[in-house]
Amino acid sequence: MATNIKEKHVELGLDALIDEKLKNGGDPFVTKSKVPVVDISQLASKNDLEELKRKVGAGGSSASTELKGQGFPYNLNADIGTIYTDTTAKNGAVKWIKKNAGTGSNAWSVLFGDVKHKPRISSSQNNAYVEFRRINSTVEVGFGGLSWGWFGIVRRGAPSYVPQGSDRERNVVILNVGGIPVGFRATSSKLGIMTNDKGKRLGTFYLGGPGDGNQLRLQFDDPVPTDRDIGDLRFTDMSYITDDPWPENLQ
User: 57, 82, 113: which is the final residue of a domain?
Assistant: First the structure.
């Protein structure tokens, strides 16, 4: 406390003033009128400092770099780096960033979005499905719909069975050429393993990239049975990066 008072005295020049008064035989008391006046009109206020801090954090600009609206931001011609929040979260896309100059789907990219889609498929048993889930720019492919999460196909030769031309006995079309929905397509072809419920390998599943028709098929090691359906299929994980714009049509 004493140190703080001493430092304040030095700062205000009180010690020097008292010494001068004593040297000239005056009294040692200092009245308010004799204290040097400090002009505080040019000093920054707390609000001034907060505003300066905010501007520095924004790169020296007072302009906002975050926008809000409803729907995709494709028509907004904002600065690169601008963040946009869709208050309706259309098709699961909440937050976007401007990545390229201009407007349109190539100018914006989703920072946070999560959407699922189950397209119409071929050769499957009733209730079986393939689900594409996209989180930001990553897509995961899942199979299921039957008991215990199984996936199943109908027997070869059944009305809904669609053979694939490169091996009509073993290959089964799930999504034909061009069938991978826009917004979920891979940048290159992918291959995974297909098993029965006990983990015994039955073949592979193949997802074609842009160089092979954006299709999905099953490729069995042995000919697909003609006298029974297969209803206990399991699949290894498959995920990949997509360069597609965010999906607009989920029909």
Answer: 113
